[in-house]
Sequence to fold (585 residues):
Amino acid sequence: MKGNPVLLKEMRQRFRTFKTPLIISMYLLITGGLCLSYIYMRWRNMPGYYQPGMSRELFITFSMIQLALIAFVVPGLTSGSISAEREKQTLNVLLVTRLKPLGIVLGKMISSCSFMVIILLATLPLYNIIILYGGFSPGQLAGVFIFYLVTLIAFGSVGMACSAFFKKTGASVVVSYIIVLTIMAGTILLGAFIYEVTRVPGPGSSPTPLISQILQDLNPPMVMLRILGETGMARSLGLPYWGVYTIFYLLLSVLLVWWSARQLRPGGGKGMTWRQ
Amino acid sequence: MISISEMTKRFGRTTALDGMSLEVEKGAVFGLIGPNGAGKTTVMSILATLQLPDGGRATISGRDVTSDIEEVRGLVGYMPDFFGVYDGLKVYEYLDFFASAYHLPEKGRDRLIGGLLELVNLGDKEDFYVDLLSRGMKQRLALARCLVHDPEVLILDEPASGLDPRARAEMKEIIRHLGKMGKTVLISSHILPELGEICDQVAIMENGRVVVSGPVEEVTAAGGGSRVIVVEVAGRAGELALMLEERPHTGLVEADGRQVKFFYRGSREDQGALLKEIIDGGHIVIQYHEVRRNLEEAFMAVTGEVNGK
Fold:
């Protein structure tokens, strides 16, 4: 953190106020309450007996809620990080320093995403409650958290790119959410549509088109379900689904972060034509 | 120190800089004057490496502002015309952040920041949140920020904008002090009398070009070729003003009591003939003389001429 002044400053600004611990506490209180209520209700229906399958059900539901939270919160956190500086007229004084645009973008992205990372890490004890009753392995839990991290980086970089490109935070936020919604729902819908269109009518199953397989592998909820042991459309790709997902989204993130940094160079993007 | 040659910059169909050239000597406090849209802010942001010109060249201490960006940023302290401050940061932290952004070593930062805060009269505000400071204090803090890496050149775009008279006077004193410290200061302001007091040299810009530049005395005395003439008459000053407005080479005629002041662009001989005409018109002339213009009058004369008024 010492090596990146923007990161240090952003962390200081973000975590200094009472707001951040309050939000985290509230979130833990609500999610913890929901988990315990679920377990209690299940236990009450069948006293002295708790099925591991129920625990698994809770694990899947809770993991999906966290994924939805990432999709909802991360673009909101990052999509205003540069455009808001532009609006508050603090960006120019930052750009004339010796900081590299890439350092500025990374500092802002890491600090924005760190809030979500803290929330996710804070929920680990809740997963431990579920683990106590069995139904899933610690390996799956690790897989879910790695998946969260990849998804968080991808959505964060989408927000950063929009923030660097658009002058106004409003436009940046709207476009970020449209892109994230497309990733969350559009990929699977398009994959299913292509599958239906190319399917051979008649009895028996048709092979899944390659594009549908790829789109399925790029859809976060589908990948999450697969990590949790659910099955999706048949696939013939050599690379495992998690490999396709991780490679694609990490590459996309690198490209978007690099492109965001380019926008901050003199004459590098719309953001610099601030006199127009 | 600062050299700008044939610089052009366009934003769509608007030409912000149209072959602008300018030289600023080392250690000078140089004022850039011009109406809104003359291109002052554009040239300043190009010098600060925030924008790239479409044509021409600019150097600071021999370093090209388009290719030696890193070096130029180390040489320049830039204060834009509008700027915000970070919420939730204290004055000390704000300057400490910029010190680290300029890669200054942590050792000695305490002393540096303390010295800068003393220089801008904010020594007792170290632990105040920046967003809670008054406008004048924020401007002074921004000036301290510009100085954090000890730049050779300061580019100050309207540093006194929006300040009350007291805060303006304080800002003026600080800039004067910086000039004495040997900093090269390029400053723009719309408060021209104050600029005349601070600057050694000025340039008047209009339509993206420098119309006239040089030491303040030269610009006010000779800029644009027109002169300011004051006529004091025993009476009927209003009538004389109306008469003068209709004569060739005159402009910006103002009557005040028994005095009539106007700009004159004719030859010396024509100026004499005009006096004869006034006397022949039945006016009793008490005084007829040329006055030394202030910067505001020079600016009005020069920009008036450029626009054909």
User: Anything to note?
Assistant: The longest strand of chain B covers residues 14-24. The radius of gyration of chain B is 23 Å. Residues 113 and 252 of chain B are 50 Å apart (CA to CA).
